[in-house]
Design brief:
Length: about 400
């Protein structure tokens, strides 16, 4: 792997105006990283990556690089772009095994971080490095949120997240696992106990139901729940998945690895309009996942999924609509049906905290820097934007950190 990484780094043209950095939501200093790597200054390259993005080791594995950095590489116009993700993963992994990071001069202010997914981890690490007393409140047993409980092992090895756990311990971050904020401990309790700034990064864990007949049957499951622990499910030989986003791809590929023989993704729109990234779609096809496009789910029975074809049409502005054709209604046999039709936030916190406004669908309302409508409470990540990429959550969370510091300094 090391030789391959060096070869890729040597392909870089070291552009004066790096398009790769411009295409990254968190503006990763890719040119500088590669230059340091070429000079043999691995730790300095790793420090550069980490200070810009505390989750660099994660993003290097699961980012849609073809959409961001690699998709903007100047070489991609004529040949393969530089494998930036491979270089970043090599450097950031090495850095986390040898770093000597420690909190700066200790500050008196306490910071509460609710949820330890991408947004929460970003805020906790940065705040701890700045010397604040950080406590993470995590409703699950382990930290990581969607990274640990929503992304399969083959895409994101758990040992990567364990290395971030070790970092949190080194930075003196306190973690309260199995602690759901809202029902027992409330936002008001946190303020009473001296937390000067409170951050909400709870993600979107509530499955969005389809509200079709048969959704409560025993062989029907929600994708986000399945990914938390696939080993407890017995799906049978044939699996139908409703929805075609990246979560659906993860479920499909995981189901095959867990013994399913036939896995089909059912999507009411066309192939060109599926929300999954081309990278994830291509891998799903290579691994044997089948796709039924322009196929609308109508109901679920004990025998499988009742579907009908959809007819595509466009209005005067070119906007596509899909109309189901009842004459094509048929049964798609399946032993298990997975629903992957996106998620919304749980209401545990906002139901017990008067003053935090939410939009339709339960997303927390904030400004561009993560300030909620309650003083001293901030939020970012999927609980604000809906499901986005990890690197986008990091970028938003960095702005929230700046706003939190400004708020605490003003007090």
């Amino acid at each position: 792997m090391g030789t391959h990484v060096i070869e890729e780094a040597n392909q870089c043209l070291v552009c004066k105006k790096p398009r790769c950095t411009a295409g990254c939501p968190v503006s990763t200093p890719i040119r500088d990283m590669i230059e340091l790597f070429r000079k043999g200054e691995m730790m300095e390259a790793g420090r550069l990556l980490f200070e810009n993005n505390p989750l660099s080791v994660v993003c290097s594995l699961i980012c849609p690089h073809e959409k961001f950095c690699e998709g903007h590489c100047v070489l991609s116009a004529k040949k393969k772009p530089v494998a930036i993700s491979t270089i970043e993963q090599y450097i950031s992994s090495y850095y986390l095994t040898r770093h000597d990071m420690a909190p700066r001069e200790a500050k008196e202010e306490r910071v509460a971080v609710i949820g330890s997914g991408p947004a929460g981890l970003t805020v906790a690490i940065i705040m701890a490095l700045k010397g604040y007393k950080v406590t993470i409140f995590e409703s699950a047993e382990r930290t990581g949120g969607i990274l640990r409980y929503g992304i399969p092992e083959y895409r994101l090895p758990k040992k990567v997240l364990d290395s971030l756990d070790d970092l949190l311990e080194r930075l003196a971050v306190k973690v309260r696992p199995n602690t759901l904020i809202g029902p027992v401990i409330t936002i008001d309790d946190l303020k009473r106990d001296g937390y000067k700034s409170i951050f909400i990064g709870t993600g979107v864990w509530k499955p969005r139901p389809l509200r079709i007949q048969g959704e409560s049957l025993g062989h029907v499951h929600y994708a986000i729940n399945y990914l938390k622990n696939p080993d407890v499910y017995r799906l049978g030989r044939r699996v139908a998945i409703i929805g075609a986003g990246n979560v659906a791809m993860d479920v499909a590929r995981t189901a095959l690895r867990k013994g399913a023989q036939e896995v089909t993704v059912v999507y009411r729109r066309s192939e060109a309009e599926m929300p999954a990234t081309p990278f994830e779609y291509d891998y799903a096809k290579v691994e044997g996942v089948e796709f039924a496009f322009q196929t609308n789910p109508v109901a679920i029975t004990d025998e499988g999924l009742v579907v009908e074809s959809t007819v595509r049409s466009e209005d005067a502005e070119g906007k596509a609509t899909y109309t189901p054709d009842p004459a094509t209604r048929t049964l798609f046999p399946a032993d298990a049906v997975m629903i992957a039709a996106s998620q919304t936030p749980q209401a545990n916190i906002v139901a017990t905290a008067t003053g935090i406004e939410v939009a339709r669908g339960g997303l927390v309302i904030t400004d561009d820097c993560g300030r909620t409508t309650m003083e001293g409470v901030f939020a970012s990540g999927d609980v604000v934007t809906g499901a986005k990429t990890v690197v986008e959550a990091v970028a938003f969370s960095k702005r929230a950190v700046a706003a939190m510091e400004t708020y605490m300094d003003s007090k």
